[in-house]
Design goal:
Helix 1 (17-29) packs parallel to helix 6, helix 5 runs parallel beside helix 11 and helix 5 crosses helix 12. This protein is 34% helix and 22% strand. The chain is globular. It folds into three domains: 4-98, Rossmann fold, CATH 3.40.50.720; 102-306, UDP-N-acetylmuramoyl-L-alanine:D-glutamate ligase, CATH 3.40.1190; 315-447, Alpha-Beta Complex (Protein-Tyrosine Phosphatase, Chain A). It contains 16 helices and 20 strands.
């Protein structure tokens, strides 16, 4: 669709938050008839009240199936609402298209899109690409999970822009024609299975980043990940593999501690300041996507020599009395915490725990060899205690909150130690977001006094 084709359409926006509000406002501006349905009661729902004042129909407090009887053209669903929700399930049964707002964003924008997905590393890679594309011929705009809602950015973007878009499996599952100019698929690891049900369904959702691409578009993918490589095999896009383990044709690889792209040297590993071996994968992916979109090698080199990381992702907080504190609150699954732990060789005080999604943590054992103290919190603290005990961690302390965890971490540490918040779990048992959890950690660290 173009912007004009939304005029007169009958649309239900299901669920507000930032993405729902942005989609509703955009569709209303484009001339669609918009009905908003949000679970939060009307009296407590300032978002819904403001949208109603703009002329939209608002139904709050429940999701009546009768909303589907109004000859809807499509539904824009908040990504967090699961597909087994009765109104979503019924809409699909009736053949009503159910999309997320990134589908809307891609349909209306004049800008080309670089879409980044994967179980881990999305935010770091998205930020790297954004920085690498600065000062190029087309100004980059960042959107999606990392920044402004995609459809807000898409409406304002011109053909002189490139939208660098971090996309989740939740968002991708609600796409029908979404086809970025460049897709980046970083890795696949068991995550969000409480939402998707099975690993296969989760993989299928992630794969939607490339299913509609053609030979005029590109897929930058991790050739070291079997599942990602299997997705690439059926993609119709131009394939740009990257690997930290082997030389790949027409792709990115490391040889003699130098990164190459299709035989051309880009930068030596010793010049890259971003910590962690796992970040080399993110760097390779970012270089590939950026070069395709016209970034200059000099700008890429500058970014890699100065970029130290993003907030809540192995973020260096401070050094205090010889202890170095790192905030990795965005590590919401086991693989993310494994990679964070592998970034350090020093004795480590690990702060971990959070929402219990039903998984065990045995895969974390091998990464705990240099953890001298584990401080656990949240719903998963007993599970983490079991795994750490089996891994030989000598000191394991359960706590109730972040402030207590940070204080104990300092007491248990010595000069030269790393204090690492890397929860391996989502935050929703105690905090609204991983950002809130990370902020509490940083504030607690800043409040320590020697």
């Amino acid at each position: 669709m173009t912007k004009q084709q939304y005029n007169g359409k009958n649309v239900l926006v299901l669920g507000l938050a930032k993405s729902g509000e942005a989609a509703a406002k955009l569709l209303h501006r484009l001339g669609a008839s918009v009905t908003i349905n949000d679970a939060k009661p009307y009296g407590d729902n300032s978002q819904a009240q403001k949208l109603e004042a703009l002329g939209m129909t608002v139904i709050c407090g429940h999701h009546p199936l009768e909303l589907l009887d109004q000859d809807l053209d499509f539904i824009v669903k908040n990504p967090g609402i699961p597909y087994h929700n009765p109104i979503v399930n019924e809409a699909i049964t009736r053949g009503i298209p159910v999309v997320t707002e990134i589908e809307l964003a891609a349909a209306i924008t004049q800008a080309e899109i670089v879409a980044i997905t994967g179980s881990n590393g999305k935010t770091t890679t998205t930020t790297l690409i954004f920085e690498m594309l600065k000062n190029s011929k087309r100004e980059p705009l960042v959107a999606g999970n990392i920044g402004t809602v995609a459809c807000e950015v898409a409406e304002k973007a011109t053909e002189n822009n490139v939208i660098v878009l971090e996309v989740s499996s939740f968002q991708l599952l609600g796409t029908e024609k979404f086809a970025p100019k460049v897709s980046v698929f970083l890795n696949l690891f068991d995550a969000h299975l409480d939402y998707h049900g099975t690993r296969s369904d989760y993989q299928d959702a992630k794969a939607r980043v490339t299913v509609n691409q053609t030979d005029s578009e590109y897929l930058v993918y991790n050739a070291d990940d079997t599942d990602v490589s299997n997705v690439a095999k059926v993609s119709k896009a131009n394939l740009i593999p990257f690997s930290t383990r082997k030389k790949v044709d027409k792709g990115l690889y490391v040889e003699n501690n130098v990164i190459f792209f299709d035989g051309q040297p880009i930068i030596g590993l010793e010049k890259i300041v971003l910590p962690g071996k796992h970040n080399i994968e993110n760097v390779l992916a970012a270089i590939g996507a950026s070069l395709i979109m016209g970034a200059e090698i000099a700008q890429i080199q500058h970014v890699l020599q100065t970029f130290t990381g993003v907030e809540h992702r192995l973020q260096f907080v401070k050094e205090l009395d010889g202890r170095r504190f790192y905030n990795d609150s965005k590590a919401t699954n086991i693989l993310a915490s494994q990679k964070a732990l592998e970034a350090f060789n020093q004795p480590t005080i690990l702060l971990a725990g959070g929402l219990d999604r039903g998984n065990e943590f045995d895969e974390l054992k091998a990464s705990l060899s240099h953890v001298k103290v584990l401080i656990t919190f949240g719903e998963t603290k007993d599970k983490l205690t079991r795994v750490a005990t089996e891994a030989g961690v000598k000191t394991i302390i359960p706590v109730e909150n972040m402030e207590e965890a940070v204080s104990l971490a300092y007491e248990q540490s010595l000069p030269g130690d790393v204090v690492l918040l890397s929860p391996a779990c989502a935050s929703w048992d105690q905090y609204k977001t991983f950002e809130e959890r990370g902020k509490r950690f940083v504030e607690a660290v800043e409040s320590l006094s020697v």
